[in-house]
Design a protein that fits this description.
This protein is α+β, with helices and mostly antiparallel strands. The chain is built from twelve helices and 16 strands.
């Protein structure tokens, strides 16, 4: 159904991508994509690359007069920094500049060494150019197309950061911020996201925001990096997306794969997640009710949402809530020890232009990264070659 591919190197001429399976008749303009690309570039702790690039998407195919055609949608995002790398990253010309040196000292925590050994390269740049998080620019762009489809169905996707580094305060899941509950009750996850976007670290808790900014500044001064935890919330999902029938149709598994494929993400959980393993079942599962405000359908609701909106690999009518952890970025300005792969001598790891902290950006990437999986699950259940056809089959309670 929905599938996509990206191509391009971090310092190459451009990033390109194609997404197919998008229904016909979806209103789509470059501004819908550019808004998400701009959000991806924000956040306290980003590096100088964000000062060079102002990402804009060019729609190359699949759209006519502002509406999708049902054919593959292809996109292009130019790398403005390419002008500074035309010799080092030449596509066809042989390297003639003797100043173009091979990168031979891998960074601990990066794809450098394993990628070099896997493909038998003698220059780590062949690895780092594609393994760079710059690739997520096109991933966000392609998923933004799917996000537009979800939006027309009333599905809203949002995120916020709950912790950065050792000084950030992760929210107690059993006692969420009153502000977060108010934003969700106000209608959609995007209300929460708008509030998070106003914070330089995308946090809703002012005290945690202050501590996180200070921690990032200290890490930058020390030549170090910081990771963190973020939460993604989706509202407006119907019951029954995904399936318990086969392992590869379970929606939470498909969403987890999308999140874990993001650079530096090392873990993902739904609802209570890992905490559920430390509590008795009476404090983990969501009791059912016939209360008038029940949202699960057939007059049945839930008193809590500890499952995070999925049961048995399917959506259950509650908001989808997942968290992910991003490790600190592997490039340190005060580098760790490594080994020169050419000489075998111990040396300090290679330094590549990078960020001190990219957790706020990673949350935005994750928001968009799950949209293709959600859109695919929608088409799997409701079918339709056009938006008009899907809307005819869409539950009236969600319109």
């Amino acid at each position: 159904m929905i599938r996509f591919l990206t191509a391009g190197e971090s310092h190459g001429p451009a990033l390109v991508g194609i997404v197919e399976g998008v229904p016909a008749g979806l209103a789509l303009r470059a501004e819908h994509i550019d808004h998400q690309l701009a959000r991806r570039q924000q956040g306290h702790g980003r590096g100088n690359r964000m000062k060079i690039e102002t990402d804009r998407a060019r729609i190359l195919s699949g759209v006519r007069f502002g509406l999708t055609l049902g054919s593959p949608v292809s996109l292009l995002v130019e790398n403005r920094d390419w002008k500074n790398w035309t010799e080092k990253m030449a596509v066809e010309a042989e390297p003639t500049d003797v100043t173009i040196k091979k990168v031979t000292i891998p960074r601990p925590g990066h794809a450098d060494l394993a990628g070099m050994q896997k493909y038998r390269f003698d220059d780590i740049r062949n690895v780092l150019e594609r393994s760079s998080a710059r690739e997520t620019t096109m991933r966000v762009a392609l998923n933004a197309v799917c996000r537009q489809m979800l939006r027309e169905l009333g599905i809203r996707v949002g995120s916020h950061v709950v912790a950065i580094g050792p000084d950030g305060r992760a929210l107690d899941r059993t006692q969420p911020l009153p502000q977060l509950l108010e934003l969700l009750d106000a209608g959609h996850a995007e209300s929460m996201t708008d509030a998070a976007d106003r914070s330089p670290v995308r946090m809703l808790d002012p005290a945690a925001e202050t501590a996180a900014i200070a921690a990032i500044d200290r890490a930058k001064k020390a030549g170090d990096t910081l990771g963190g935890i973020f939460e993604v919330i989706v509202t407006g999902l119907p019951i029954g997306l995904g399936s318990y029938v086969h392992w590869d149709r379970k929606l939470d598994g498909r969403l987890a794969q999308a999140i874990l494929s993001i650079n530096a993400v090392k873990g993902v959980e739904f609802g209570l997640g890992f905490e559920a393993g430390l509590l008795p079942g009476s404090q983990v599962h969501d009791a059912m009710t016939t209360a008038a405000d029940g949202r699960a359908g057939d007059g049945i609701g839930r008193l809590t949402n500890r499952a995070g909106g999925t049961e048995g690999g399917m959506t259950n009518g509650e908001p989808l809530v997942l968290r992910a952890v991003m490790k600190p970025i592997a490039t340190l300005m005060n580098p760790l020890g490594s080994v020169d792969t050419t000489t075998g001598a111990e040396a300090k790891a290679h330094i590549e232009r990078s960020d001190t902290c990219a957790v706020p950006a990673c949350a935005v990437i994750a928001e968009n990264a799950i949209c293709a999986a959600l859109a695919d699950a929608v088409l799997e259940k409701f079918g339709g070659d056009s938006m008009a056809e899907i809307l005819e089959r869409w539950p009236t309670s969600l319109v």
